[in-house]
Every structure is written in C-alpha cells, then in structure tokens.
Amino acid sequence: MISINKKSTYALSPQKKVGIFDYPFTLNPFIGCQMQYKYCFVPGLVIKSTRKDFFEKVQIKENIVDLLKKELNKYSNLPQHLKRVQFGVTTEIFQPKVINYMKKNLGRGLIAELLDVFQTEWHEDNKWMLHILTKNHNVTPYIDQLKNMRGMVQVEFSFIHHDEIISRKYEAYTSSITKRLNAITQLSNKDIFVRVMAMPFYGNDKDVKTLKDI
C-alpha cells in the first residue's frame, strides 16, 4: 500500500556522530520500502515499525521539497565539509511502484524536484554535496539532470554478491546485477561520478575479486 504523508516536519536528518567517512545529513523522501531486503536493518532499529508494515506500507512525504528548501538555507552557514547529504539510506529512492504512484496521484516527480533544489542552491552559492545510494537501475531516467550536477553529486550502487541467484535470495525485488551494471555504464559514460559498494557482502575473498572483475 502506498499513501501520502502530508505532515512531515523535517526533510534532513542530522546525524548525531559524524566521522571522516560519514555524512552529516541524510535525506529520505519515503517511509517504508517495497524492496524487502532480508538484511534490512531499518524496521525496528531505526524506525519504530514491524518489518511487515515497513515493507508493505510506503508513505510519500508530500511536503519534503518545501522543507528541504528551508533547511538547506537554515544550514547554509555550516563549514563546507559538513554540507554533505546522503540520499536514500533508510529506503530505496527509486522504487518503481512508488515513482509511478507519484506521477499518477501527485502529478509530480519528487525525486527530480529534490535534485533541482540542490542544483538551484548550488548555483546560488549554497553548495551542498549529494551522495545517492541505490540498488536500482531506475536512476537512469535522471541521467540528464545528474549530468548537470556532476560537480556536486555522486551515485553509489550496492551489491551483496556477484552471483544473481545468491543476490536474489536476499534482495528479490530490486534490479538484477546486469541492470545495475548497465546503469553504472550509462552514468559513467556521462562523466557522472559512480562508486560501487559491497555491503553487506555474502561471500569470501574470491567472491570479492570476482565482483571487482565484473
């Protein structure tokens, strides 16, 4: 079930402890995730929800664009190294059914609008770095927009194994390994900075090497 949440009170979540590799802020446009990763740590630990509700009931934060504009300006005087946002930590932001629902019921594309907010702020000298975390090839429709944000954005794809059968065992509803690799190629061909992460990883040193090779 997908629904609209009109009562969100914030867009950015400041992190309590920030190390050299951490991101001072996270941004999640939805509550809930239909990808149903078996290793997902969010329900219960991060969000007070059962796994069933978190995986089956997705709420779209309808007012998140306006909230983000206000908050980026609120934090505009932070040191540059703290103006970094990780986009899509507690939920996959390119969930196909959710994106289609937004187009049909809101007549809007919140993901594109959020990207536009960051781009506009950048041009107005409020420079925020954006780190997009995904397992889904549905990032590719946003390539033209991301291409125009090359200096301020990076896209990170996550893999848990190089073998499709093993991958499907733990993440049955996301993009195949092949589709993710193809998306990486498309983004890289547009000079968009792409990273690959193997976490969590279900394999040994040999499997890690195989993943690197592909």
Question: What would you note in describing this structure?
Answer:
Strand 7, helix 6 (143-147) and strand 8 form a beta-alpha-beta unit. 29% of the residues are buried. The chain has one domain (9-28, 62-201): pyruvate-formate lyase- activating enzyme, CATH 3.80.30. With 214 residues, it is an alpha/beta fold. The chain is 37% helix and 18% strand. It contains 9 helices and 9 strands. The strands form 2 sheets. Strands 2-3-6-7-8-9 form a 6-stranded mixed beta sheet. Strands 1-5-4 form a 3-stranded mixed beta sheet.
**Fraction of helical residues:** 25-40%
Q: How many domain regions?
A: 1
Would you state the CATH class?
Answer: Alpha Beta
Q: How many β-strand stretches?
A: 9
